[in-house]
Specification:
single chain; 369 residues; alpha/beta; Enolase-like, domain 1; TIM Barrel; 2 domains; seven-stranded parallel beta sheet; four-stranded antiparallel beta sheet; 12 helices; globular; binds 2-succinylbenzoate; binds magnesium ion; EC 4.2.1.113; Enolase-like_C_sf; magnesium; lyase; o-succinylbenzoate synthase
Length: 369
């Protein structure tokens, strides 16, 4: 494939409501979009990192720098033989920076699939036309506010609720949501590394509430801690931050550190590695679901395609655009009986709205290839 240029487009979109986790509060989504232009196609992808390195070591300004100084030159060195399938190998000498690698691989894959008229879903092996949508509910100022928010999401049709938790906002919110909305709603929690193994007895107090899982209770490098915790609580453990590759997934499963995996393509370096995690988990009887990073329609489109693979058996954090944004940069993803439709058009299957993009753009960098 012959790439003509790669543009980095920094945008900032206001969130409809602040999103608070154990590591911080976001009022807007700031991201770098990558546009890959060939003679016949334009590929798009979205950087998953946040402005600050609080969820993972990656952060947006660092990502832009690594992309320009370290990653793009390695792709340029491949010349016209470059395809999406070559990207990970070409970038492997650069340690880490999965999200920056992922955004390049994904934009190149989008351009390539558009040239060939194939959708992400078809290319990745999707087996469903729509996927069940969950919603990730942030930490709130009060329990009343939380119950209102959960009630509204359930009314909208979301099929699973995930509550963000942290010490001081855990047992009580879960108890109240369970009491108010009953035993039948699918409910899970996400701690974003806010606890230690010494909190095991406290976390065991979540056991009576029949949660689907607890996501990433302990620090990302504490695989043995998660394995220990799994023996002390009955809520299944799901890993997010800890899993940066299919090898990580295989190790975590083998060590008994998780019985569910949250697959975020960006966190693991792209959709091909995400699919390998899906396959490793499936081979071990471990269910997976698709996580999110508050993506715009660009990142969401590809995530929804991935979530249609057969071992994505639990609802993902693939919510409708309206959960995040009043005005998305693509046509909005809309909830249909609690599900999102998998795009069927070439590549990611959604178009960027040029006027909206222009109004949200704060800077651009154009790199001739
Ligand atoms: O841990 O899953 C997480 C958002 C930003 C960073 C980390 C996480 C999240 C979410 C939101 O939970 C998922 C979404 O709706 O995109
Ligand atoms: Mg998480």
């Amino acid at each position: 494939m012959r790439i003509e240029n790669i543009e980095l487009v920094r945008i900032a979109l206001p969130l409809v409501t602040p999103f608070r986790t154990s590591f911080g509060t976001a009022n807007e989504r700031v991201t770098t979009l990558v546009r890959v232009s060939t003679a016949d196609a334009e590929g798009w992808a979205e950087h998953a990192a946040e402005p600050d390195p609080l969820y993972s070591p990656e952060f947006l300004d660092g990502g832009d720098l690594v992309i320009r100084e370290h990653l793009i030159p390695r792709l340029q060195a491949l010349g016209d033989s470059l395809t999406a399938e070559h990207v990970a190998t070409a970038l492997a000498p650069v340690k880490g920076h999965q999200m920056s690698k992922a955004v390049l691989e994904t934009a190149i894959l989008d351009a390539q699939l558009k040239e060939r008229g194939i959708s992400f879903g078809a290319h990745l092996g999707a087996v469903h036309e729509s996927v069940p949508a969950g919603v990730s509910v942030g930490i709130m100022d009060s329990l009343d506010e939380l119950l209102d928010a959960v009630g509204r999401y359930l009314d909208e049709g979301y099929l699973r609720i995930k509550l963000k938790i942290e010490p001081g906002w855990d047992i009580e919110p879960v108890r109240l949501v369970r009491e108010r909305f009953g035993p039948d709603i699918l409910l899970q929690v996400d701690a974003n590394t806010a606890y230690t193994l010494a909190d095991a007895r406290h976390l065991a107090r979540l056991d009576p509430f029949d949660l689907l899982l607890i996501e990433q209770p302990l620090p990302e490098d504490d695989i043995l801690g998660h394995a220990g915790l799994a023996r002390l609580i009955s809520t299944p453990i799901c890993l997010d931050e800890s899993i940066e590759s299919a090898r990580d997934a295989a190790a975590a499963i083998a060590l008994g550190a998780c019985s569910v995996i949250n697959v975020k393509p960006a966190r693991v370096g792209g959709y091909f590695e995400a699919r390998r995690i899906h396959d490793v988990a499936a081979a071990n009887g471990v269910p997976v679901w698709c996580g999110g990073m508050l993506e715009t329609g660009i990142g969401r489109a590809a995530n929804v395609a991935l979530a249609a693979l057969p071992n994505f058996v639990m609802p993902g954090d693939t919510s409708a655009s309206s959960r995040y944004y009043e005005q998305d940069v693509t046509a909005p993803f809309i909830l249909d009986a609690g599900r999102l439709h998998v795009p069927t058009g070439p590549g990611i299957g959604v178009d960027v709205l040029p006027d909206v993009l222009a109004s949200l753009t704060t800077s651009t960098v154009d790199i001739r290839f």
